[in-house]
Amino acid sequence: MAGDFMKKVSVIIPCFNATKWLPKCFMSLVQQTIGIGELELIFVNDASTDDGATWAMLQEFERAFPESIIIIDLQENRRQGGARNEALMYASGEYIAFVDADDWVEPNLYERAYTRARETDADIIQFNHNFYFEQVGVVPTKTEMADEVIVIANDDDRRKMLLSEKITYGCWNKLYRREMVMETGSRYAEHVIYEEPLFVYPLLFAGKVYVTISDRLYVYRQNNMGTMRNDMKAYETLLQHADVQFAVWEFMKQTPHFKTFYDEIKLYFLHTYLYEILDFAKRRDMEIEFKTFEELARRAMAEVDDIAVTSYAGIVAKQVQLYQMIKDGLTEDGLKKYVESI
Amino acid sequence: MYRISIIIPCYNAEKYIDECMQSILKQTSGLENLEIILVDDASTDRTPEILKKYEQEYPENVMLILCEKNGRQGTARNIGLNYATGEYIAFVDADDWIHPDMFKVLQGLLEKTACDVIQFRGQDRKEYEAFKPLNGLKCNLRDVSGVEAKKAMLLNSEIWNEGCWCKIYKKELIDKSGARYAEGMTYEEPLFTYPLKFWANTVCNLDEVLYYHRHHEASVTFGYMKDPRTITEHLDVQLKVLEFMRNTEFYEEYKDEIDFYFLHTFFVEPFYFTKYRNMKLPVTLFEYMCDTVEKYVPDYENNPYFQNEMLKEEKKIMDLIGLAKGLTGTEEQKMIDEVQNGIAV
Q: In the A/B pair of chains, how many CB contacts fall below 8 A?
């Protein structure tokens, strides 16, 4: 049967000037206890600017495991989101996973996650992770994750799951059933940071079974280089975050779920598009320009029915305070005071 | 007058089934010789209740079969076939509708010709609207019992295409062949419609639109069309067709035609399908396709049909099997992508 040729997991690794840590990542993938034969590793060179060093390394990888590795060379830089999207077009495994080039994974990641996913018929399986700091080594994240199987039997089950936020919006701590991803058509935002929710969020509406396991199977390298830290200082990334969340909202609008789960989708949109901007900015000692935030608020108001009304006011009182302020008319002073209070 | 069974597989059809049923119940031929077999494929909406009402209102003409498990259209139609008592069989999809004169016209033609199959035309419509009056009823009766005539028919979808609902079939033909739909998968029709061609002696082509197919806006970005299973299931069905035909008395005489049909649908068509839907053809799938062709049709390069000038693009695609040897997965993928890019849709 045609379906039998599928590898168990397609792993997608976007690479940009990645030679420093990619070998460790690569080794952790080819040494998976599930067996490299069951995996399809897709490395994407995101138009690296290191005189071909990253691409040469990928070619070496492919020579080593030609049956299990595909390498893609992008002509134009599209950042992690674009690189992952390109690879998604070629992935043919039963499940899809994503690994960042400067991270690595535990040897039993795919054996454990895939086996559990098949046991439970999971559409998405999410696992826990550790951090790695150069100075101190591997450190567990404070996040606790339960061993749980969430079965969506009806719309209310889904609402409960959405509100619980047990399934996070990051992409690399999960395995996704490929057919569900393709049918949903969700893709990463390109050329920006915080690109993952556009991919993950729509999938929360597509699955019947969501599974979490407490095993810490992924090691996330925290360093001063790479995408996150540098950019975190850049003001521009706040606006990128807003843009991506707007794109999530636009995507959901064209699905049948928009009507059924309007309250929940609206809650998520306003929270991530408005509240989180202020929250992120404050944590990084940045201040968002009043005119900019005013524009975001105006856009949000134009999109939703009544910005200050939500059936979930009880659990988002702080946010509702902001939305009410916006509805009544935002002032620079009012916004300043609000930000101080969060 | 012939007794005609109309088989309608129904799955979550509450929105459109009434328009479908009304178009059948209001046939100008009257219902006397019509047997409507409704097969509910374990719907989860109000379809079963709606169908029960029709069965209650028309007990002489409507038979309702309720499936406990969902088996998809192929299974549902096969179940209908097992219960059908008509001398001729027609298939209608639950969200489509038919011309009010359809069975009057078909009965008339069957009276005159008693042919094995009548193929008529259908039209895509976005929604239910008034149909045009028929004009002239131009029809063409062909004798396809001879080898040359049959070979000509096999490659001409104008005479006999792979769809199931623009035709009416003599039940005897279906019984002789043992043909049935593929079960549990999409693109299930060829396993039923293709083998029948070989047992048929007479085909009548009616150049008239009698069937209206409801066109659903398929999204470009998502939806079932992007589901990779639509490709893998298509492959599975085409392999089943080949295996079915190889077990018949016809394979000896029609080997080139049967092999060509397989190579075209199994190996060439996926390139077009994926291109049309903005999908890539992954190298792992491509390798499965190559391996299967080499296993089942090792002499594919000698098939005379690919020598035809008109099929240059198809030949180019078939040549990939040989060209792929010795290449890495990445190189193969590049080659596939290049060929796919070159296809005009």
A: 70
Identify whether the C-beta of residue A127 lies closer than 8 Å to the C-beta of residue A216: yes
Which residues in chain A touch residue B227, judged by CB atoms under 8 angstroms apart? 179, 182-183
The 10s digit of each residue's pLDDT in B127-173 is 877 777 787 778 899 999 999 999 999 988 889 998 999 999 999 99
Query: Which residue in A3, A7, A62 is closest to B232 by CB distance?
Result: A3
Residues of B in contact with A179 (CB under 8 A): 227-229
Q: Judge whether B184 and A144 are in contact, CB under 8 Å.
A: no
Distance from CA of A10 to the nearest CA of B (A): 11
Q: How far is A154 from chain B (nearest CA, A)?
A: 12
- DSSP 3-state assignment of B186? coil
HEC states along A132-155? Answer: EECCCEEEECCCCCCCEEEECCCH
Q: What is the dihedral angle through the alpha carbons of B43, B45, B47, B49, rounded to the nearest 10 degrees?
A: 110
Query: DSSP string covering A78-134, please?
Result: -HHHHHHHHHHHH--SSEEEE--TT-EE-TTHHHHHHHHHHHHT-SEEEEEEEEEET
Strands (DSSP E) found in chain A: 9-15, 39-45, 69-73, 95-98, 104-105, 124-133, 137-140, 148-151, 174-177, 209-222
Q: What is the pTM of this model?
A: 0.85
Phi first, then psi, for residue A175 (nearest 5°) are -115, 140
Residue B151: closest CA among B198, B191, B193, B112 = B198
Encoded amino acid at A139, one letter: V
What's the rounded mean pLDDT across residues A47-54? 97
Q: Which of A66, A89, A92 shows the shortest C-beta gap to B284?
A: A92
Contact B282 A90 (CB under 8 A): yes
Tokens coding A319 = 């946010």
CB of A215 closer than 8 Å to CB of A111:
no
Residue environment code for A297-310, b if the CB has 16+ CB neighbours within 10 A, otherwise e = beebbebbeebbeb
CA distances from A312 to A258, A316, A320 (A): 17, 7, 9
Decide if B92 contacts B37 (C-beta within 8 A).
Answer: no
Q: pLDDT tens digits, residue range A168-178?
A: 999 999 999 99
Count the neighbouring beta carbons within 10 Å of the beta carbon of residue B95. Answer: 18
Element (H, E) at B4: strand B4-10
Mapped onto helix, strand or coil, the DSSP state of residue B322 is helix
**Interface predicted TM-score (ipTM) of this complex, two decimals:** 0.78
Residue B164 has what DSSP assignment?
A: S
Q: Which candidate in A4, A62, A92 is best for mutational testing of the B interface (most B CBs within 10 A)?
A: A92
| A88-100 exposure pattern, b = at least 16 Cβ within 10 A, e = fewer | bbbbbbbbbbbbb
